Amino acid sequence: MSRRQAIRVRSRRAAVAGTAVLAAALTACSGGSDAGSGKAAMKPKPMAISVNLTGDKAKAGEPVTVKVTEGKLTSVKVTDTKGGELSGRISADGKSWTSERKSSPGTSYKVEAKNDESGTATAQFATAAADKVNKITIMPGKGGTYGVAQPISLVFDNPVKNKAEVEKQLKVTTSNNTEGSWGWMKDYSGQDRVDWRPKEYWKAGTEVKLQMNLNGVDSGTGGGYFVRDYNTHFSIGKDQRISVDLDSHQLTMTRDGAEVLSIPVSAGTPGGKKASWLGKMVVMAKEGTIRMDSQTVGLGDAYDKMVDYSMRLTWSGMYAHAAPWNTANFGRANTSSGCVGMSDANASKLFAATQPGDPFETKGSGSKGKPEIGNGFGEWNDSWEQWQARSALAGGQGN
Q1: Which listed site, 5, 146, 175, 314, has its alpha carbon 20 to 30 Å from 354?
Q2: 353 phi/psi in degrees, rounded to 5
Q3: What is the rounded distance in angstroms from the CA atom of residue 60 to the CA atom of residue 225?
Q4: At 242, which helix (H) or strand (E)?
């Protein structure tokens, strides 16, 4: 029986431009017909690599670069202790490899490299923990069905100064190659926000996916690092649209261009804070029965009551809902405190038919103008050219 011969491999370190060089030797064993034949096993040739990140407190948010001093790299694998892997590319001359993603804060990594001379080498390093972590609130959630005006909306916990760098990591794919763009703004909360909307309303049946490859990306001053990736997906449902004529006091819903509901309403009282908002909005959520307190929207003690079939249109408190106390004015006059009110029966029908994401447009006189873009989903009031200009990659700042 042949006997395996253990070969001790020494690792060596060399300084290369101030960067630690880590060496690992080839391993080899005798066997097969060579065992006991008198042939000496070939001594492995050491392989030296240098990694730009070293130690246990390396700077996060940097790509990993691996260089080889002899031969050409054939493969490099960089993994973390959580099972993640940084993919990358070998340079044309085979002398270096650079990761496509950046290193994440507070993470330990292992580097495994091979060259064309059958050499192998390993290295390890860990990144320093982030002083501050940025997180995201995502709308819409995963797996739902939404109307044709539904944007993708991301609100950040902390400021985002590196808007272009963040936007580069946001990848939208659709089942029908829908054209769209990101646009930056201030959310109604005052936080930084970026939304993605199509050039035109979605086509019914479109499948939408968003991959946010943000792990290791620096938000910029005051924002901190992202320490994970995010994703969401949703579907577009029926093509139905809601419009309110403030002059005729009528609400109309169409589906695939055909009218399916016509409802007499009473909208906001003209001439002040109680007027309704004008323009293109989106049904943000079907909230159902909720408490409405006028003091929360700056209208003093005008009302405080439970309201049925409520559908939110803006963050500032404009809804479409049942308003049985105002029956005498439906179809006749706008006398509400800003919302679009209707009978219980009609509100029930509208609530049942509506999808979150359905466009909701008010037209006519007596409004208080268009809401700020971040007060709900106001992006549809921009022309396509105006919206594209809000992209950080087009030079827009979104403020």
Answers
A1: 175
A2: -85, -25
A3: 9
A4: strand 240-245
Domains of the chain by start residue, with CATH = 13-126 (2.60.40.3780), 136-236 (2.60.40.3710), 240-368 (2.40.440.10)
pLDDT digits (tens, 9 = 90+) for 46-92: 789 999 999 999 999 999 999 998 899 999 999 999 889 999 999 99
The percent of the chain in helix, strand and coil, each rounded to the nearest 5, is: 10, 40, 50
Which residue type sits at 25? A
- Collapsing DSSP to helix, strand or coil, 294 comes out as helix
pTM, two decimals, is: 0.83
Q: Where are the beta strands (DSSP E) in 150-239?
A: 152-156, 170-174, 180-186, 192-198, 207-212, 230-236
Report the SS3 class of residue 321: strand
pLDDT at 31: 35
Cα distance between residue 320 and residue 350, in whole Å: 9
Q: How far apart are CA 293 and CA 287, in angstroms?
A: 15
Rounded Cα gap, residues 297 and 338, in angstroms:
10
Could you tell me where the DSSP H helices lie in 173-329?
A: none
- Write the CB contacts of 30 (distance below 8 Å, at least 6 apart in sequence): 2, 4, 5, 39, 41
CA distance from start to end of the chain: 77
Share of the chain above pLDDT 90, in %: 80
CB distance 158 to 134 below 8 Å: yes
With CA atoms as reference, report the closest residue to 51 among 122, 129, 108. 122
Which residue stretches of the chain have pLDDT < 70?
Answer: 1-45, 294-304, 395-399
Token pair for 372: 């700020």
Q: How large is the C-alpha radius of gyration of the chain?
A: 30
What are the angstrom distances between the C-alpha of 255 and each of 38, 91, 258, 305, 311?
Answer: 87, 55, 5, 32, 18
Q: Which amino acid is at 257?
A: G
pLDDT of residue 293: 72
With a CB cutoff of 8 Å and minimum separation 6, the contacts of 197 are: 151, 152, 180, 181, 183, 379, 380, 387
Cα(85)–Cα(229) distance, rounded to whole angstroms? Answer: 13
- DSSP code, position 218: B
